[in-house]
Each structure stands twice: as structure tokens, then as C-alpha cells.
Amino acid sequence: MKHIVVLGAGYAGLRTVIRLQKLLHGQAHITLINQNPYHYQTTALHEVAAGNIPPEKICFDIADLVDPAKTTFIVDRVSSFSPQTRLVHLIDHDDLHYDYCIVALGFVSETFGIEGAEENSLPMTNVRQAMQINEHIENQMAAYQPNHDANHLRIIICGAGFTGIELAGELADARPRYAKIAGVEPGQIEIEMIDASKRLLPMFNDALANYGIRLLHQLNIRITQHARINKIQPDLVDYRLDGEDSTTPLHQSQAGTIIWTTGVSGSSLVGQAGLQQRRGRVMVSPHLTAPNDDQLYLIGDVAAVMPPNGKRPYPTTAQIALSMANYVAEDLAARLNNRERPDAYSYHSQGTVASIGNTRALGMASGHSYMGYPASVLKKMIMNKSLLELGGAKQVIHKGRFDLYH
Ligand code: NAD
Is there a single domain that holds both residue 142 and residue 186? Predict the structure, then answer.
């Protein structure tokens, strides 16, 4: 019997296992490895970081979804994998030999080597880090009471990409709660985003992007744009504006909470395995395998797929991770059943929606633009659909987003 090893139980890895369990009937055994016994919805980390929803709301047990007759689930960290020997090395378990390996190890925060970023700012790439951000903010608010240092009330988000903007919206929603802890008015909680890009929300047309920026201004979120961060010190962000050179003194913004959302990279294990990659992403074959190794699939945040006639790979999202997983399960099932493999992978985005707090969002779906409350409902429906694909109806009932109040 063939052995399929799946590394990671995020959107891509977990969906692959769920599909393979349906498609395979004794042709192969699956081993799923994940460092936590639970799966978490990465698309809702910003809500946990702001303290607007509890972590339990975005997590569910992986074991509930595993059919022990078809899949062995191991809770452990992958320390490395070798395409040459077809071995996966784990921290606390014996090595595993595979016939097919599906690398779905997800993403890590990218600091671009900026001095002090790792030591002096808070990343938000997993549920533990999101909880740490919430705890840090609450501690800062509490610390305001004895000394009235306004620094405790300031929050800086480094990077105003999709993640930074969604987080800013959630923090704005949370202002009344923070203010209560600090004993101040909500308006005294300052939120600032610092970003290097020329245009915010680049994935949207001008009308939608301008709507999003207006919303952020209305929520009293300060946006410092054209500003390249080059150092983080304790409670201090140093940056330079476009056009300024190294002789200009650095600008500085001060805050008791500094959150790092300047971008992500695929897992570093991909580069360590000797695969040709850029920021942890491998340009995969039309069947989502490594360029010279048809036994090794790479999906989700560790894979790069070029759109037809495109110049840059599709952005990494939960939606594309789930779509890649569905494809890989079909492809593998065809191979194991000696059937013709499906045509090359192609991706059809169902749309992109960015939330700005719980009841506001903006997005594009099926060629239509959505703004405000209707867009926020659309966003929750998209999240419920992902949840259904992973956790089934049970998880949708328990963890679905039906808080559609206005
Ligand atoms: P990103 O790369 O989209 O944005 C990072 C931002 O940080 C950019 O605006 C960039 O200009 C800025 N930046 C980088 N270095 C900087 C520096 N030194 N100084 C100042 N600014 C700097 O990263 P992200 O927001 O973490 O998103 C990661 C991926 O996840 C993207 O592909 C995104 O599309 C996806 N995502 C999707 C959704 C969704 O679909 N709802 C939500 C969140 C993230």
C-alpha cells in the first residue's frame, strides 16, 4: 500500500486529507502531521488579536475530522524533509518514509531583516501570537492607569497590507473596551499604520480602495504612507519617507504596542530541503508538484502559481489553498487508481473581500463591487464556506459567523 504524508493541517493540508479520505478506498494510507492538535482559521486571527472574539471561536480539533482507518494523525513538528531520500524528520517521532508527500506548511512572518523587528514588535501569524497581541494591548491599557503615560494608549501597525488594514478595523471596533480598561475616552486610543507602498489596497480598483481609505480615516486611524520602516526599537518605529536619503534624520513614532504585518513568507523548511524558492514559495509544476519531483506536492502558502499572462503569482489566500488541496486530492486519486490525471491546475477566484471591523468591508466578487455592511455579510459567508469545506456542518453550526447584526 502506498504511503501519503501530509505536512501541515492548515487550510491546504487539512482539506487535502478530508478529500483523500473520500476518494481513496485502500489504495494508500495517509499520515497527517501538525504541530498542534487543532486547526485555526488564519483569516480571523486579527479578530482574536483585537480581543473581539475568543480563540476557541476560530479553532477546532483535527482528530474529529480524521478517519483512523485511513489516516494516522501525528501531533509533532516537522524538523526537515528530504526529496532525495523521501524521508520526513520529526522532532519527537521516528522518521517517516513517503511515496507521495504534500507540503502544506503555511507561512511565517517576514521581517526582511529589519533591525529590531523580531525583538521589539509582535507578529500575528498564528493563534498563540494573536492571543499574545490581545494580552499585550490589555496590559498596556491597564498600565496607563497609574502613570497616565499616553504611550500606553498608542498602537502602531507596521505595514498596511491586507492583514494590517483588517487588523486596524478590528482594533477600532475594540476601542471602547480598551478605553474602559485604561479609564479614558475611546477617542484617546490612538491607532496608526505605517506603510511604504504608493497605493494602499492594490488588489482593488480606485473606487473601492478609496472607499476603504475613507473608512479608515472615518474610524480615526492614522495612515502614515510612503514611509519605509528601517528599525524598530522598544516602543519606537523609525522610518524614512519617500525621497529622503540617509542624510535625513529618521522619523520616529512611539507606541506601547507595535504589531508587525509587513508581509509573509512560506515555511523556511522548503528552502532547507534544497528546493528552488523565493521567500519560501516554490514555482510549482502544472500538477502542483516540485519542478523535478512528481512525488512531492507543494500547496498553499509554500506554492507559487502564475496566472495566465500574469507577471506575479496569485496572492496567497485561504481560498487558493483550498482550491489547490481539492486539485491535489483529485490528481493523487487518479494516479493511485491508474486513471488519467486531471488537466493542469487552474484557479478561478470567487472574489476578494477585506473587512474593516465587524460590520464594514469592501470587496469584489463575480465582477461586482461590494461596500459597507453588505460586503461584511459576504465576508462572513465566505468564511462559513471555508469552514464547511474543512470542518463540515458541525463546525459551521458551532463556529460559523452568523453575527450579521448591523
Ligand atoms: P502584504 O504583502 O499584502 O502587505 C504588506 C504591506 O507592508 C505592504 O503594503 C508593504 O508596502 C508594507 N511594507 C513592507 N515592508 C515595509 C517596510 N519596511 N516599511 C513599511 N511598510 C512595509 O502582506 P499581508 O498583509 O501580511 O498579506 C499576506 C498575504 O495574505 C497577501 O497575499 C494577502 O493578499 C493575503 N491576505 C488575504 C486576506 C483576505 O483575502 N481577506 C487577508 C489578509 C491577508
Answer: yes
In angstroms, what is the span from residue 264 Cα to ligand 1's centroid? 7
- The alpha carbon of 318 and the centre of ligand 1 are apart by a number of angstroms equal to 14
Average pLDDT, the chain: 95
User: Are residues 80 and 183 located together in one domain of the fold?
Assistant: no
Owner of C-alpha cell 472574539 = 53
Beta pairing class for 100-103 and 96-97: unpaired
Final residue before a domain boundary, out of 231, 255, 279: 255
Task: Give the Cα separation of 182 and 195 in Å (integer).
Answer: 28
Same domain, 69 and 151: no
**Within this chain, do residues 242 and 272 fall inside the same structural domain, yes or no?**
no
Q: Give, using CA atoms, the residue closest to atom 38 of ligand 1.
A: 162
Tens of pLDDT, residues 114-170: 999 999 999 999 999 999 999 999 999 999 999 999 999 999 999 999 999 999 999
Ligand 1 atom with least separation from CA of 263 = 23
- Tally of domains within the chain: 3
pTM: 0.95
CATH number at residue 206: 3.50.50.60
Helix (H) or strand (E) holding 367: none
In a domain? residue 260: no
Q: Is 177 in the pocket of ligand 1 (CB under 6 A)?
A: no
Q: Which residue segment(s) compose the domain that 404 sits in?
A: 351-406
Span from the CA of 292 to the centroid of ligand 1 (angstroms)? 30
Residues paired with 222 in a beta bridge: 192
pLDDT at 406: 60
Is the CB of 197 within 6 Å of ligand 1? yes
pLDDT in tens, 213-267: 999 999 999 999 999 999 999 999 999 999 998 898 899 999 999 999 999 999 9
CA 338 → CA 182, 324, 331, 341, 379, distances in Å? 65, 21, 11, 9, 40
Angle among Cα 395, 108, 360 to the nearest 5 degrees reads: 55
Which tens digit of pLDDT belongs to each residue from 287-322?
A: 999 999 999 999 999 999 999 988 899 999 999 999
Give the side-chain half-sphere CA count within 13 A for 204. Answer: 25
Q: Give me the CATH number covering residue 306.
A: 3.50.50.100
Both 71 and 176 in one domain: the answer is no
Domain boundary among 326, 349, 372: 349
What atom in ligand 1 is closest to the CA of residue 318? 40
| Catalytically active residues, by annotation | 166
From 156, 201, 223, 262, the mutation candidate for ligand 1 (largest count of ligand atoms within 8 A of CB) is 262
